[in-house]
Amino acid sequence: MKKTEPTLRVRAMKHLARREYSRAELRAKLLPHAQLDEDLDALLDELAARNWLSDARVTELLVKQRRSRYGTQRIAHELRQKGIAENLIDEALPQLKETELESACEVWQKKFGVIPEDNKAKAKQMRFLQSRGFSTGVIFKVLQLAGSTELGEDC
């Protein structure tokens, strides 16, 4: 007996049951299995109309998950990679920027917790924070706050 291929709808529902996907991500996953692009777009439109597929929800979840470990630049980059529209990214950025210094301090404290002794150590700490997507201005503030208190307790 021949096993039948799951329909496009079944595949979409299986993906969405596991985690939230942006429209672009789900489209890319389903595209190899679609017969016609119109069928795929119609299915994605229906899923969005039923609120089973939401770029806004994906944006909100990603920001919530990443904000304590990554900077604004890194999160915005991840959202763009997922195909999130620029207007949704622009709406999320102000709330990220409000807490970016606090997040950078927590990341710095967890990783280093010690004021850099020389320029080499300072550069290493700066590179680490940059790789996490924190802006240069925030990084300088973190190191300044750490240097202005004993052993960086405030930062």
Overall pLDDT level: 91
Q: Give a count of the beta strands, DSSP E runs of length 2 or more.
A: 0
Regarding CATH, which class of the domain at 1-53?
Mainly Alpha
Rg (CA only): 21 Å
**What gap, in angstroms, lies between the N and C termini?**
65 Å
Write the layout of secondary structure elements.
Blueprint: H1 8-18, H2 23-30, H3 37-49, H4 55-66, H5 72-81, H6 86-111, H7 119-131, H8 136-148
Helix pairs in contact: 2-3, 4-6, 5-6, 6-8, 7-8
Structural commentary:
The chain has helices at residues 8-18, 23-30, 37-49, 55-66, 72-81, 86-111, 119-131, 136-148. It is an all-alpha fold. It has a domain at 1-53: Arc Repressor Mutant, subunit A. Helix 2 (23-30) packs antiparallel against helix 3 (37-49) and helix 5 (72-81) packs across helix 6 (86-111). The protein starts with 7 loop residues before the first helix and ends in a 7-residue tail after the last helix. The model has no long low-confidence stretch (mean pLDDT 91).
List the main descriptive attributes of the protein structure presented here.
Arc Repressor Mutant, subunit A, mainly alpha, 68% helix, single chain
Could you write a compact summary of the structure shown?
The chain has helices spanning 8-18, 23-30, 37-49, 55-66, 72-81, 86-111, 119-131, 136-148.
